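note to self: dont lose this again. the chain is below, predicted strucutre after it. 153 aa total, dont forget to put it in the shared folder this time
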Amino acid sequence: MPSAFVFNFVILKLLACFFNLESSKKMCNLRSVFALFLFLFVLVSASAQTSYYIDAVAGNDNNAGTSTAAPYKNLSKINNSTFSAGTRIYLKAGSVWNGQQLKFLGSGTASSPIIVDKYGSGAKPVINGNGLTRSEEHTSELQSRQYLVCRLL
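---
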């Protein structure tokens, strides 16, 4: 991901061109402005594709949860979050979550679905409802989501 300096530089150049503050008019030609907007679009699109990692054994809910080295422990850390297209949610192989639910908001797109998958080797992760039977107590609440791919089944 580009540094904050690069991002700020691009924003300042766009503003300078917009308000005709740029001393070099070559920088403000249509092609340059288009390239800068394209750069911003790619930057925003790339930042929307976040991955979250959850490990019931070695995780810690104080972690950032965005790498295998610092995963969350409980599903509750992502529950009720709204995710955008391209988000990946990885559950650690062999992990078991007892009495927890996986429920989040948001939908993907045809070209960039939200993906729920496992990471690591071993048995598929288990979200154990502990025999819960009422509809509000199911282990996952993912209905009405579009373009959601769950590879754990």
